[in-house]
Amino acid sequence: MTASDTSSDAVAEAPAYCVHCGQPSPGGADHDACHNPRTALEPPRFCVVCARRMVVQVTPVGWTARCSRHGETASG
């Protein structure tokens, strides 16, 4: 097993976090406020893998969100 194998295993086993509040999604947090029509249009603010606050840039044609550890995500 190489170092890259262990890092990919760690990412695969990491819990998923809410992109709007940063709390663990499958756990005890109440996410009703995070899943409504208004937040459906909002860009993600937290990384889904590590819950770090992301750098978000909103433009007239979409948005980009960048995690310092996991890279960039863009609107469709």
From TrEMBL:
Alphabetical UniProt keywords: Biotin biosynthesis, Iron, Metal-binding
Residues in Biotin synthase auxiliary protein C-terminal domain copies: 54-75
Names of the cofactor(s): iron-sulfur cluster
Keyword Iron carried by entry: yes
Entry's family note: Belongs to the BsaP family.
Function in brief: Required for the activity of the biotin synthase BioB.
Name of this protein: Biotin synthase auxiliary protein
Species annotation: Amycolatopsis rhabdoformis
